[in-house]
């Protein structure tokens, strides 16, 4: 019989006493003392919203150059995400040129000049075509020019209405003269109400569609584009979004009536009813682009929400619709 040396026995006993030399079997996993469950997508979304909502509200209220700068940054990030989408499809957009014109279109909105905006959009297309002539590869010219220009239009030009709507009094003054502001009962800071109204309606519609869809969603709204969206969710979104618009109007009427008095409650509710389906269409358009690019999100900057473009897709379409409907309402009131 084999007897181990005393030194080996002693070292084994010493290892058991001190805890050294005891090694679990390689196939036996060590239990975690405090296992952490990953945060759900809804939790991360709510945490992101808890940061964004106060920040966006603050920027809308203070206005000025800080607001313009914020819109410019959002526009640049969202437009870059869009170009990454079409790059994934094999196109080669003129990124720097497109971003430059996108920033210029948003900046020009500060002047509330429709003429300058139209001039810039025309100039951007001409410059893009000339720039494409200097590229070594010409086989993707059509995709490059059209993709770059669509990025300027879809992101920058649509988002520029966030500036036009926040400083809505400038647009009215530019078209009808400053004397008509008092006739309309339009305060120079009424843009605070208008921007918050638009954002709240769209965001509440999105939230209502999400929760109503999870609870009662049965019939698909657009199966091929976004399988998770349902008709029941869309209806729930319209109901909650319209209610959100009603609450914003009521809140301003009670707290700062000078900002919202020019817009009757009936018109405000009607606007909310229109903006909700417009926002849903804007969401579906971006889903269509992502489906074609075969990606889930346009980015990962906002936890639980994806990229900037994922967050503003519905607002992008709602902003110009609300702006031009309001301009039509002003024209009708002053006619």
Q: Would you write up a description of this structure?
A:
This protein has 335 residues and is mostly helical. 73% of the residues lie in helices and 2% in strands. A hairpin with a 3-residue loop joins strand 1 (220-222) and strand 2 (226-230). The protein has helices at 6-18, 41-62, 64-87, 95-109, 114-133, 141-159, 161-166, 168-176, 179-184, 190-216, 231-255, 257-260, 265-293, 308-334; strands at 220-222, 226-230. The protein is built from 14 helices and two strands; from the N terminus they run H-H-H-H-H-H-H-H-H-H-E-E-H-H-H-H.
N-to-C order of helices and strands:
HHHHHHHHHHEEHHHH
Shape: globular
Provide the low-confidence segments as ranges: 8-13, 15-22
Summed up, the domain count is 2
Strands ordered across the widest β-sheet: 1-2
Rounded to an integer in angstroms, the radius of gyration calculated over CA atoms is 28 Å
Determine the structural class based on helices, strands and strand pairing.
mainly alpha
State the end-to-end distance: 114 Å
Beta-strand share of residues: under 5%
Number of strands: 2
Helix segment tally: 14
Major β-sheet profile? 2 strands, antiparallel
């Amino acid at each position: 019989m084999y007897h181990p040396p005393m030194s080996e026995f002693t070292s084994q006993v010493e290892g058991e006493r001190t805890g050294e030399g005891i090694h679990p079997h390689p196939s036996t996993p060590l239990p975690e003392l405090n296992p952490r469950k990953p945060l759900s997508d809804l939790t991360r979304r709510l945490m992101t919203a808890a940061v964004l909502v106060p920040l966006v509200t603050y920027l809308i209220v203070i206005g000025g150059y800080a607001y313009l700068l914020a819109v410019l940054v959002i526009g640049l990030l969202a437009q870059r995400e869009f170009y990454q989408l079409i790059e994934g499809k094999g196109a080669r957009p003129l990124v720097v040129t497109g971003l430059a014109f996108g920033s210029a279109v948003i900046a020009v909105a500060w002047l509330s000049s429709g003429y300058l905006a139209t001039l810039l959009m025309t100039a951007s297309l001409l410059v893009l075509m000339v720039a494409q002539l200097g590229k070594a590869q010409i086989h993707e010219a059509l995709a490059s020019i059209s993709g770059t220009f669509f990025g300027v239009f879809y992101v920058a030009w649509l988002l520029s209405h966030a500036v036009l709507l926040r400083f809505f009094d400038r647009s009215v003054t530019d078209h009808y003269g400053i004397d008509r502001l008092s006739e309309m009962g339009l305060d120079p800071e009424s843009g605070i109400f208008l921007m918050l109204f638009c954002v709240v309606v769209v965001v509440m519609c999105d939230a209502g569609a999400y929760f109503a869809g999870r609870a009662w969603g049965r019939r698909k709204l657009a199966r091929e584009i976004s399988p998770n969206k349902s008709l029941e969710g869309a209806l729930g979104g319209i109901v909650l979004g319209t209610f959100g618009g009603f609450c914003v109007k009521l809140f301003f009427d009670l707290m700062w009536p000078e900002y919202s008095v020019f817009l009757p409650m009936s018109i405000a509710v009607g606007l909310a009813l229109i903006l909700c389906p417009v926002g849903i269409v804007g969401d579906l358009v971006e889903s269509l682009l992502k489906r074609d690019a075969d990606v889930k999100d346009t980015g990962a900057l906002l936890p639980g929400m994806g990229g900037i473009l994922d967050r503003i897709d519905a607002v992008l379409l709602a902003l110009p619709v609300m702006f031009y409907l309001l301009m039509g309402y002003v024209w009708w009131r002053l006619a």
